[in-house]
Amino acid sequence: MLDAKFIRNNPDLVRQAIRNRNYKFDIDTFLKLEQERRTLLAQIEELYAAQNKIDKEVKTLLAEKKDPQSKIEESKRIKQKLADIEKQFSEFDAKYKTDIDRIPNIPHPSVPIGDASHNKIIKESAKLPKFDFKPQEHIVLAEHLNIIDFKRAAKITGSNFVLFKGEGARLERALFNFMVDLHAAEGGYTEIFPPKLVNRASMRATGQLPNLEEDMYVTKEEDLFLIPTAEVPLTNIYRDEILNEDDLPIYYVAYTPCFRLEAGSYGKETRGLMRVHEFDKVELVKFVKPSDSYDELDKLLADACKVLDMLALPYRVAILSTQDMSFAASKCYDIELYAPGLDRWLEVSSCSNFEDFQARRGNIRYKDTKTGKTQYVHTLNGSGVALARLVAAILENYQQKDGSVIIPKVLKRYMDGRKKITK
RNA sequence: GGAGGGGUGGCCGAGCGGCUUAAGGCGACGGUUUGCUAAACCGUUAUACGGUCGAAAGGCUGUAUCCAGGGUUCAAAUCCCUGCCCCUCCGCCA
Q1: pTM of the model
Q2: Does one domain contain both A91 and A162?
Q3: Residue A111 domain-assigned?
Q4: Distance, Å, A371 CA → B41 C1'
Q5: Residue A43 contacts by C-beta under 8 Å, 6 or more apart in sequence?
Q6: Under a CB-based contact definition with an 8 Å cutoff, are residues A5 and A35 in contact?
Q7: Does A71 share its domain with A170?
Q8: Domain of residue A47, CATH code
Q9: Mean pLDDT in consecutive groups of 10 residues from the start of chain A, 423 residues
Q10: In what order do the strands lie in the sheet with A241-244?
């Protein structure tokens, strides 16, 4: 959420940001609404002031044992008037609140303007792997090794769910343990194991609601959402709280499953591990001082890349363009792994700085030690990294001619010292 | 799931329709005293959104906020309803 005052004072900036993101939102109509809302609010406050004054007068009259009846009558009249204006106000207010929630964050000046074709690659692994045979897709490898059972997952639940089996299950578990350990030990992140169901207020604070409601799983009885990412429970840890400046920066890491309905997706994109409704992910979240947030974003990106360096996988990093970035982000880097079987780049991480956009929605602040003022923190998050596609990339990059798959060295101690997955 | 008891400022805690502009205490901060520390004494002590003055720091002013949202009333921390959370007991369960 942007500051209403900021929008009022910088309408052109906001208009430009919306245009650069290719969003549709009429700022002028919004500003008119906002003005109207404030006018009504001022009227209401004036009437309340009058009521409060009468209230005191009544008290005085009662204390002096005089008749307050005429004052009471006056108060009743004001009450009537108030009811009318408040009814008007609540209509404007409701519209105002849903509208301001739908205004996206302002992209950082360093973000390339345009659609996904303007994403800028800033780093790429020196060389892609070479094979003296035709590399297979991960689906073929997984079926050959009997480590993933897509058919039975579909029977148990539905299409685009995954059942890992044997060494496949072991690999999945090894990977998230490896990543959480790495970030906790070397990155200085505190490990969290959060709830995987969250309420509406939490989903709103991080920006999944109201725009992405149709992509989320929700429980009927309690209106709780299955988390689409650990970003939601982690960032909401400090919703409606005031932190001390000395507490910052705060770094959290969590492994969680992630649930995405993605109602609109279909076709080739959805085969295998590319786009599944439930996947595992290790997520990094930071709460930092505004002055540090872009340095922190670079460090966050480096922490995510470190996982892939250690796994010795080919990857590239792109700055996402204004149209490709999520609604709440100011700046976002994507990390993509190369999958030689598919001959495609697979997105396994987004590292974003939200500046104070989420903090304002979630009312997450800190007290400045020197000035004593409270202000919004900056929040960041990044995948470190997402699992399903990572498994696909490992299978495809480490495959051997006979269909076996070498286990990356750093995972050996998480896999009972095994070096290879074979049939 | 059932039955009770609760939720008040940074913390503890009183208040239970108009005497509250939320008592009192603790803590924190500033000051006085002091060789230093402590003690004592005096003072300050939230947030949000408007209006207004100011170059700014900030001042003045209005409104709201006693878990949240509704309601009753001229008037609600106080009464009623709904929800959330916490505690005790019972049931069920991993």
Answers
A1: 0.91
A2: no
A3: no
A4: 29
A5: A85
A6: no
A7: no
A8: 1.10.287.40
A9: 90 94 94 91 91 89 84 90 88 88 93 96 90 95 95 91 95 97 96 91 86 85 88 91 86 95 64 87 95 96 97 97 95 96 94 94 83 86 94 97 96 95 94
A10: A241-244, A364-367, A374-376
Q: A52 with A136, same domain?
A: no
Write the ipTM.
0.85
Sequence-separated (6 or more) residues with CB below 8 Å from residue A362: A205, A206, A235, A236, A238, A239, A240
Token output for A354:
């939200």
Look at the alpha carbons of A302, A303, A304, A310 in this order and tell me if their dihedral is positive or negative: positive
Between the CA of A251 and the C1' of B35, what is the distance in angstroms?
Answer: 48
- Number of structural domains in chain A: 2
Report d(CA A207, CA A339) in Å as an integer.
31
Measured at the CA of A337, the angle between CA A332 and CA A340, to 5 degrees, comes to: 150
Residue A270 pLDDT: 62
Residues packed against strand B, CB within 7 Å: A 3-5, 38, 41-42, 44-46, 48-49, 51-55, 58-59, 62-63, 68, 72, 75-76, 79, 371-374
Distances (CA, A) of A365 to A3, A209, A289, A329, A361: 14, 21, 10, 18, 11
Report the alpha-carbon distance of residue A79 to residue A284 in Å, rounded. Answer: 52
Q: Are A179 and A309 in contact (CB under 8 A)?
A: no
Helices (H), A146-192: 150-156, 167-186
Task: Out of A101, A125, A145, pick the residue that ends a domain.
Answer: A101
Give the tokens for residue A35. Answer: 């003005």
| CA gap A284, A281 in Å, rounded | 10
pLDDT at A200: 86
Residue A26 is part of which domain span? 4-101
